[in-house]
Each structure stands twice: as C-alpha cells, then as structure tokens.
Design goal:
- This is N-acetyltransferase.
- GO terms for molecular function: acyltransferase activity, transferring groups other than amino-acyl groups.
- InterPro entries: Acyl_CoA_acyltransferase (IPR016181), GNAT_dom (IPR000182), N-acetyltransferase (IPR051531).
- Keywords: Transferase.
- The chain is globular, with a radius of gyration of 16 Å.
- α1 crosses α3.
- It has a domain of 120 residues: Gcn5-related N-acetyltransferase (GNAT) (Aminopeptidase, 3-Layer(aba) Sandwich).
- β1 and β2 form a beta hairpin.
- The protein is of the alpha+beta class.
- 31% of the residues lie in helices and 37% in strands.
C-alpha cells in the first residue's frame, strides 16, 4: 500500500516501514550489533549510528527519499531497515534499493518484502528515476533477493567494500549491479 505522502509510513502485509530519523537510533544500534549485519555493514559505534540516522532524516528532508526502519506489524518487533537512496552511478542519478534484516529473522522473506515496498514506492513518487541494487559479489543472499525482485544483472561496479577471503575494507571491491527492468521491456 503506497502512502499518501512520500514521507508517510508504508504498510506491507507484515511490516510497518517508517522513515528513519534520529529517534530510531536505539533500534538501529540493535540492528547493527547483529554479527551478520555487522559483517556486511559494520563496524558501527553508537555515534556512527546516530550520525547515520541523522543523515537519513536529512536525506528524507532534502532528497525526498531515504531508508525506513522496519517493524513487524503484529507485535512491533524490529525486523530491519531498508528503502531507497539517491546515488550517482557513473554520470546518472539513480535510486538504490537496499535492505538489512536482523540475523535471527533472515530467510523469512523480509528483505524481499522491504525491496518490493521500495520498488512500489519509487514507482509512485519517482517514476522517472532508474532503480538499481548492488552488493559485494559474494553476498549471495542479497543477490538472490535482487533476482526475486525481478532485477536484472547489469555487470560489476567497483567501490569501497569487502573482498571475499581478504580482511578489511578495500577501495575497489567488486559489487554485483542489478537494475530494474524498464516496464516497456517487461514481459506481459
């Protein structure tokens, strides 16, 4: 269900997706302290989390787009976060869809649910922006979600990230790039 305004919460079958603000810092600290989440996104200090949450609030205000914190609609449990960010890819501004789900909740379809909500939101509020997703080439779980969302493989880009079998961050890590198939190319 699309919100009436771009910054309204979004409801999916199981989730309440709320634009991230500084008030979500405690939830985000909990999320980023999960070992698997930390592996792909960390390390995070409480100060880092607060700064990131403030940056998300600022992006919602300036760009009209950002990430959501995801809670279970039935009991309010923190599920993760996800949504969209404006990024420059090559010489073009695009919307990047992404997600992070708490370790104990992976494998239950939440990442796909967040991704579908983001794609629907983008179609409603930014229909002329291309949508992409990218992740380190060895993050097979995220690549699988991209495929489930109907995104199309578009090669490899290089940016700061993890390289399989090598410790630490690397300036030119390979990332699998996926793009949303334009509707005029989608099958009927």
């Amino acid at each position: 269900m699309a919100p009436a305004e771009g910054t309204d919460p979004v409801l999916t079958d199981r989730l309440l997706l709320t634009p991230i603000g500084i008030e979500h810092s405690d939830d985000l600290e909990r999320l980023y302290s999960d070992p698997l989440v930390d592996h792909w996104t960390g390390p995070w200090t409480p100060l880092d989390v607060r700064a990131w949450a403030q940056d998300m609030a600022d992006r919602w205000a300036s760009d009209g787009v950002g990430k959501w914190v995801a809670h279970d609609r039935s009991d309010g449990t923190l599920v993760g976060r996800g949504g969209l960010s404006r990024v420059v890819l090559g010489d073009k501004t695009v919307l990047e869809v992404g997600w992070v789900v708490r370790d104990e909740l992976t494998g239950r379809g939440y990442a796909s649910e967040i991704g579908r909500a983001a794609l629907g939101w983008a179609a409603t509020f930014f229909p002329d922006f291309p949508v992409v997703a990218f992740t380190e080439v060895h993050n097979l779980a995220s690549v699988a979600v991209m495929r489930r969302l109907g995104l199309e493989s578009s090669g490899v880009i290089y940016r700061e990230g993890l390289v399989e079998g090598q410790p630490g961050l690397h300036a030119r890590a390979p990332f699998a790039l996926y793009r949303q198939v334009p509707t005029d190319r989608a099958s009927p």
